[in-house]
């Protein structure tokens, strides 16, 4: 069995570690490029959203590298994600590819069901080995997110932004190659020390909340690397969702530690009291939460035609007025252009900066973590 999976930002590092821990031969999807997107666009329905098209491109490239099994997540509810696996399977079958698709369905907070699905991927792995594989994948996921949050904090504050990005990229590459928790901890310590030793510029920093559909938030290729772009404009980004928090909130019922999901739903309740599929309600709740925590602005992102985010966008018009926080929405598809996205982000950041100056506020430089 030669297994592949869809790329979704740095979550790929943890998924790869999990599958390797199950003693499977893993063929990760190649890095997402223009070719990946072109393949997905060519063979996917025209009005399918961007994540599905990228998935199709991922799978075609991985199958052509030798993969014979695809591991894909399932789902349910109004969001079209629940149909992704079936649609992608039929597209690839029609193209003549011979493969097996394993769909991991959402277990509705039953950890035992999720573990059983994962273990069934590798019949010759013992319970203890499977448990160790899950634990090590979780260690890698948490380490990756430490680096993501460090980049979000340091990139807007340091003078040498290229160095900050290099520290981050090297740390991720090293975490991907690491084969022990001790090695991961050493990588984190070295990277965080390197971040702290960078020179700070002392200029005013904007704080922007990034919210919307999970894949578009997590995958830089789907959002034109918006976190780095904003960081280079001296804007610190706080994402509404990280993979570990999503797993804890939606798959494990919050058993792995503090969860703010109930708080976010409560924040949304006055504006959107019902679940509308996907991350629509969470988008509204996070917007309210960011506003009340004093953020300078919020950016909603998602794939074009995403129904839950369209519903959320209509509500955000009221939120930004009543909570007094600037907000813009960016939808992405294969026709979006880097220049246009950059222009809108730069204009938004400039507007937030002028607003901050008028209000006479300044965020002090501080050493993080």
How would you describe this structure to a colleague?
The protein is of the alpha/beta class and 369 residues long. It folds into two domains: 2-123, Rossmann fold; 202-363, Rossmann fold, CATH 3.40.50.11900. It has helices at residues 11-21, 34-43, 50-64, 81-94, 111-119, 127-154, 161-177, 181-196, 214-218, 220-223, 226-232, 243-251, 261-269, 280-292, 307-322, 338-359, and strands spanning 2-4, 25-26, 69-73, 100-104, 206-212, 235-239, 297-303, 327-332. The strands form two sheets. Strands 2-1-3-4 form a four-stranded parallel sheet, sandwiched between helices. The protein has a four-stranded parallel sheet with strand order 6-5-7-8, sandwiched between helices.
């Amino acid at each position: 069995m030669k297994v592949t999976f869809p790329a979704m930002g740095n979550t790929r590092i943890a998924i790869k570690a999990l599958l390797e821990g199950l003693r499977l031969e893993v063929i990760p999807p190649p890095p997402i490029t223009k070719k990946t997107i072109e393949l997905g666009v060519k063979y996917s329905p025209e009005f399918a959203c961007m994540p599905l098209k990228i998935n199709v491109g991922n799978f075609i490239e991985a199958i052509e590298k030798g993969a014979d099994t695809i591991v894909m997540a399932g789902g349910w509810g109004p969001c079209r994600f629940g149909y992704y696996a079936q649609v992608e399977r039929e597209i690839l079958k029609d193209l003549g590819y011979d493969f097996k698709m394993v769909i991991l369905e959402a277990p509705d907070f039953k950890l035992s069901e999720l573990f059983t699905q994962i273990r069934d991927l590798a019949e010759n792995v013992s319970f203890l080995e499977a448990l160790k594989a899950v634990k090590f994948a979780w260690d890698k996921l948490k380490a990756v997110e430490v680096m993501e949050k460090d980049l979000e904090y340091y990139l807007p504050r340091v003078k040498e932004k290229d160095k900050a990005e290099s520290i981050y990229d090297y740390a991720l590459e090293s975490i991907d190659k690491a084969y022990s928790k001790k090695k991961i901890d050493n990588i984190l310590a070295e990277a965080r020390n390197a971040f702290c030793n960078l020179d700070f510029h002392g200029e005013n920093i904007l704080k922007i909340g990034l919210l919307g559909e999970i894949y578009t938030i997590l995958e830089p290729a789907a959002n034109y690397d918006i976190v780095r772009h904003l960081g280079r404009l001296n804007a610190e980004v706080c994402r509404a969702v990280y993979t570990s928090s999503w797993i804890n909130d939606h798959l494990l019922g919050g058993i792995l530690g503090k969860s703010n999901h109930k708080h976010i739903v409560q924040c949304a309740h006055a504006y959107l009291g019902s679940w509308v599929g996907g991350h629509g309600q969470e988008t509204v709740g996070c917007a309210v939460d960011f506003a009340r925590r004093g953020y300078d602005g919020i950016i909603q992102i998602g794939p074009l035609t995403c129904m839950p985010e369209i519903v959320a966008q209509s509500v955000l018009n009221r939120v930004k007025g009543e909570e007094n926080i600037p907000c813009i929405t960016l939808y992405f598809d294969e026709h979006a252009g880097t220049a246009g996205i950059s222009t809108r982000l730069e204009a938004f950041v400039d507007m937030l900066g002028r607003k901050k100056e008028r209000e006479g506020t300044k965020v002090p430089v501080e050493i993080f973590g």
